Amino acid sequence: MPVFRLAHISDLHLTPPPRRGIELEPKRWLSRFAWRRKRRRHSAEVLAALVADLQAQEPDHIAITGDLTNFATRDEFSGARRWLEALAPADQVTVSPGNHDALAGPGGHERFAEWGPWLGDEAAIAFPHVRRRGLAALINLCSAAPTAPHLAQGVLDPVQLARLPGILRELGEAGLFRVVLLHHPPAAGAVSRRKSLRQAPELAAILRAEGAELVLHGHAHQATLATLPGPVAPIPVLGVPPASGAGGHGDAARWHSIEVDPAAAGWRVRLVARGLGPDGEMTELGRYQLAPAGGG
């Protein structure tokens, strides 16, 4: 069976279009004020260079773990859709929305309907979405939900948590390499409490019982590596810096190529980190071998 190569990027923070009229939503107003201070941390040119580098490597699939937008406006959603259309065919890209994609406005996952082809293979906007790709299965969760001002916490609703155990069990019995996608880190210590995943203990309990081979997230704006207990072996939990990161705050732009192939002990997983080097060019930053994943 051929190696499966999954590219992971996150926290694009695409440059927002000009504001129309007066902003009446308090959280958007606060976020726009913060953007004026922080916008130099994100670069459209850096993002374009990272995408060109990623496309040149020709991964089998691309996982994007949220924050395509900044203020979750209708214009931003449309602009992000055009960006996704230029990235790759929709069936080769999976998007897990982030807190900035649900900054303000109505709750519910229907708000992401414009991105439907990139959320999963089913037409319904109902998480978790499952995509089977070669030897891998992507389980796409949504931790994006509106929160009070000054909070950026993630929420996994009861429906997702209720469906997830059966999904993980079925995919494990099928012998697939299970990759769980969400925006907020599920392991402790990656972000502060006001940015944390509220249902992290519930998710950890499900993963401990049913297993997964890998969890990918964004949100922390840093390269992070943690583990969560699994039924057989610890489950690696990987975060990636912002794809548009210009440096100066958090880690500079980076993407991860995750190469998976079967091994006698379960799975062999290699991580190739590529991103913005000291000379300002995209380059390989390192290669890492993860411990063999035993699965559930």
Structural descriptors:
296 residues; alpha/beta; Purple Acid Phosphatase, chain A, domain 2; six-stranded mixed sheet; 6 helices; 24% helix; globular
Produce the secondary structure layout.
Elements: E1 4-9, H1 26-38, H2 44-57, E2 61-64, H3 74-87, E3 93-95, H4 116-119, E4 129-133, E5 136-140, H5 158-173, E6 177-181, H6 200-210, E7 214-217, E8 224-228, E9 235-239, E10 254-263, E11 266-276, E12 282-290
Parallel strand pairs: 1-2, 2-3, 5-6, 6-7, 7-9
Antiparallel strand pairs: 1-10, 4-5, 8-9, 10-11, 11-12
Report what the structure shows.
With 296 residues, this protein is α/β, with parallel strands linked by helices. It has one domain (4-290): 4-Layer Sandwich (Purple Acid Phosphatase, chain A, domain 2). The protein is built from 6 helices and 12 strands. The protein has helices spanning 26-38, 44-57, 74-87, 116-119, 158-173, 200-210; strands at residues 4-9, 61-64, 93-95, 129-133, 136-140, 177-181, 214-217, 224-228, 235-239, 254-263, 266-276, 282-290. The strands form 2 sheets. The protein has a 6-stranded mixed beta sheet with strand order 3-2-1-10-11-12. The radius of gyration is 18 Å and the shape is globular.
